[in-house]
Amino acid sequence: MKIGFVGLGKMGGNMVERLINDGHEIVVFNLTKPEIDLAVSKGAIGTVSLEDLVNKLPDRKVIWLMVPSGKPVDENIDILLKLLKKNDIIIDGGNSKWKDTQMRSAKTSGKGIFYIDCGTSGGIWGLKNGYSLMTGGDKSAVDFVYPIFKSLAPEGGYTYCGESGAGHFVKMVHNGIEYGMMQSFAEGFEIMEKSPFNLDLKSIASGWRYGSVVRSWLLELAVLAFNEDPKLEKIKDWVDDSGEGKWTVEAAMELNVPANVITTSLFNRFRSRQEESFAGKVLAALRNEFGGHNVVKK
């Protein structure tokens, strides 16, 4: 297929390359030129604006957005709605909030334009291994662009989830589960790191990959991390979040689901960003006040 692709960041650029490698013709646009030039060197068709991109596409236009969630998505949609016509298709492959996706779909459908949400997982390894894709939206439009999904996903890695918003909802929950799994591994490795034994964490992580009930791709990544830095002394214990963990917890509260592990893992990420915990100071002060217990003063 010949499609437009907007957003050539770490994932977007690799996705374009994977599509080109599978025979698709990709017309690209990015806010900064070096990324466009790199994509062109891999076989893409470069453009200077969204209008230029749209003009280089065939009669029924398909445009994949791979831009940060929130305002950037809406800004691109507003421009594209002036350039596209009935039956054209916009695919949002970023980490958009599912409720925002539903509103955007309603907005574009008013113009006769289809809006597909595609939750995309695979990170920087997707170029080689493929991406797990979770789509939502009108089934006829999804079927029309299926060749794109088939090229991006490994065999068995594509799922049509249902009506508009379903794909981004499922991807949101996927990321929430990911938070919990990562936190569990983190706590387990810290227990071993603090044990009285001189444990080789890389060796243990590597061994768990074979036959263990906790074997996973995350363990493979842990092996890579320990191989580069056995004691992880080169990085700080500061962990960001994409926002999807928060949205998963919000959804759990709305649906009355006790998502204890996911919620705790999210709060642990918040804690990692504090140089010093004020809550910890309050705990120490209260313990000192009622029991005369020692406090450590600066």
What does this structure look like?
The structure is a single chain. With 298 residues, the protein is of the alpha/beta class. Helices cover 52% and strands 13% of the residues. The protein has 14 helices and eight strands. Helix 9 packs across helix 13 (260-272). The mean pLDDT is 95.
Average pLDDT value?
95
Helical proportion? Answer: 40-55%
Let me know the largest β-sheet.
Answer: 8 strands, mixed
- Residue runs with pLDDT of under 50 for 5 or more positions: none
Extended strand count = 8
Beta-strand residue percentage: 5-15%
Q: Tell me, what's the shape?
A: globular
Structural class: alpha/beta
Radius of gyration: 23 Å
Continuous helix count: 14
Distance between the termini: 64 Å
Sequence of secondary-structure elements: EHEHEHEHEHEHEHHEHHHHHH
Spatial order of the strands forming the largest sheet: 3-2-1-4-5-6-7-8
Write the layout of secondary structure elements.
Elements lengths: L1 E5 L3 H12 L3 E5 L3 H9 L3 E2 L3 H6 L6 E4 L5 H13 L5 E4 L5 H12 L4 E8 L4 H4 L2 E5 L2 H6 L1 H7 L5 E5 L3 H28 L7 H8 L8 H12 L15 H11 L5 H13 L5 H14 L7
Parallel strand pairs: 1-2, 1-4, 2-3, 4-5, 5-6, 7-8
Antiparallel strand pairs: 6-7
Features:
single chain, 14 helices, globular
In short:
The chain has 298 residues and is of the alpha/beta class. Helix 2 (33-41) links the parallel strand 2 and strand 3 (45-46).
